[in-house]
User: What shape does this take?
Amino acid sequence: MQIWLDDRLVVAGSASISPLAHGLHYGTGVFEGVRAYDTPQGPALFRLQDHLDRLERGAAALAMEVDLVALHRGCLDVLAASGLKEAYLRPLVFYETGGLGLDVAGLNVRQLVAALPWRNHLGEAGEVHGVRLRTSSFRRNPSAALPPLKLCGGYVNSVLAKLEATRAGFEEALFVDATSQVVECTGENVFLVQQGRLTAVQHGDALPGITRDTIMALTGADSRPVGLEELKAADEVFLTGTSAEVSAVSALDERSWTGGPVTREVQDLYARVVRGRAETERGWLTPLIQKRAGKVTVKA
Ligand code: PMP
Assistant: This one.
């Protein structure tokens, strides 16, 4: 497999990264997850610029200089090199060498993008049966301690919650805050359906998800804080994320749900929109191959 590293395609196994990389020791990096879908125009990246903009905000929090133009090119180059029609792209920028102190001034920055074959990371549960959630005993990183951005180190919090949930036989963990307000899951935002009305759970400690924003734009869902008891009383609950797409929830602690006609409709709509098979005209897709003035070129 080839990865794109600092503006060059290299074989992943021969990429050289220092064992003293600051990002490896302290999680001082920022990443994204971007999906490529098979559209009538060929493989295309969904909401690429929005993902890169969010990555830039994470990098800015770490005072890290990133070259977004190069990363944009890297996403297209690595997708083309992979030969995949549908893929998950992983852009990552991180501090590498220059010292192991906590002052990041002067550290060098590495930029990479990998393209991987991908299905929903929640597996069969996410795609078919619905995800079983367990309320986590862990709190989500409070935004006053760690901004809700895709900072590498912040994901240890997600890993701990996920471990707790899977050890207890569930597929995913739901974070709630100290007042039982719903925050998000380890890698997805939360929606609920009440008498046909859609609501996106809003919380200041949750990542502002791009899939959440997409579903809100497509359905007109409102966004407001939601308590755990209200979530359990909802007619349907679903999760959104670049990897999870729209995944139905079939259980939350002792509560279970079957079916979910609204969730199914939203899933189908999302699947068509990301593959350029629904009218949206929102410029969300960046095709790998762009037709310019009649000739076909790979986008630089
Ligand atoms: N919350 C967290 C903690 C996540 O890691 C993700 C995945 N990026 C999401 C929500 C969903 O965000 P998005 O729709 O932008 O992938």
